[in-house]
Design a protein that fits this description.
The chain is mainly alpha-helical. The protein has 15 helices and two strands.
Length: 325
């Protein structure tokens, strides 16, 4: 959903979003999500306090009345009631509610830091617990199958993209954001990750071979974005949607599309193969993936434990019980 917070947001929220963008370096997608979350919250406050007609559609509620007095008057109880509303009325899952909690916490933390409010009413706001699930990934054999499935007019380009996904663990946004100049002569690659944070990834031989093979056929004449590494058939920078469709095409070809795999699952695959098969230290893996916190990376350490458990439970003797004597 496209939003224009510069023209829509009340002054306090706009100042917060400009701070997160200009000072904290948050990307447009993140600041848009902050705005959507805050807009939803203050729409709820307007309705729950009967500040708007009861028959007005929730999505039509304006939040132009959000000022310092209203913001400072919000209570922790109202916020938890908002979380219940999100679950009961809007069917928001744990992850969605956790994101909104984070947005509210960041907003009020900013107001307190800038001395706009004296007391932060949401200082003790707790985040809804998210279900911990192990990431889905391809096996080594499936990864090789996927690479071998590449064919067609753009096979050098597609093979290069899949190779980088599976070897470097890039995010989809990072892949489409790659420029030709990001590939360095010292076999490294500059990647611009979340929050405009730059990291350097070392490219193995498979990656370099795939990149060099693609560069030989990469379009030059008529290219609309001469800086982009990956070019679409329309001579534009490949979009996230186009890359995702390409990945789905080859996953479907090897029979995996219907099983919930995606570009992000290829990132999980790279991380899992590096950790389990390559014995990469978890702290090194954190830097390769561009994670801000080690806790985010530690999910990959649980995979082996889970596999050991599954192996034990798969034993045909696992359900045998002694005869009553």
């Amino acid at each position: 959903m496209a939003v224009d917070f510069m023209n829509e947001a009340p002054d306090l929220i706009k100042r917060f979003l400009l701070y997160m963008s200009g000072v904290k370096g948050r990307g447009k997608k993140t600041t848009d999500e902050y705005y959507i979350d805050l807009r939803t919250f203050f729409r709820y406050i307007n309705r729950s306090r009967n500040l708007v007609p009861s028959d007005i559609n929730f999505e039509d509620i304006k939040i132009d009345n959000v000022d310092l007095e209203l913001v400072a008057s919000v209570t922790l109880r109202e916020t938890y009631e908002f979380m219940y509303y999100l679950k009961a009325q809007r069917n928001n899952n744990e992850a969605s509610r956790a994101r909104k909690t984070s947005s509210l916490r960041q907003f009020y933390k900013y107001l307190e830091k800038e001395h706009i409010i004296e007391i932060n009413p949401l200082k003790d706001l707790e985040t809804p617990k998210k279900k911990k699930s192990l990431p889905k990934y391809l096996t080594l054999e499936q990864s090789i199958q996927l690479l071998n499935a590449v064919e067609g007019e753009n096979h050098q380009r597609d093979y290069c993209i899949l190779t980088l996904f599976l070897n470097c663990g890039l995010r989809l946004s990072e892949m489409v954001g790659l420029n030709v100049s990001d590939i360095r002569t010292d076999n490294t690659m500059r990647v611009l990750g979340k929050g405009n944070k730059e990291r350097i990834i070392y490219l193995n031989q498979a990656c370099m071979d795939a990149i060099n093979a693609y560069k030989e056929v990469r379009p030059v004449d008529g290219v609309k974005d001469k800086y982009a590494l990956f070019i679409s058939r329309n001579h534009n920078r490949m979009s996230a949607k186009t890359v995702q469709a390409m990945v789905y095409k080859y996953l479907e070809k090897i029979g995996l599309n219907a099983q919930g795999y995606s570009c992000h699952k290829l990132r999980h695959t790279a991380a899992t193969l590096m950790y389990q098969t390559g014995n990469v230290d978890i702290r090194v893996l954190k830097d390769v993936l561009g994670h801000e916190n080690l806790g985010t990376t530690e999910i990959y350490t649980h995979l082996s434990t889970q596999q050991l458990k599954q192996a034990a439970e798969s034993n045909p003797l696992s359900n045998i019980k002694p005869d009553d004597k």
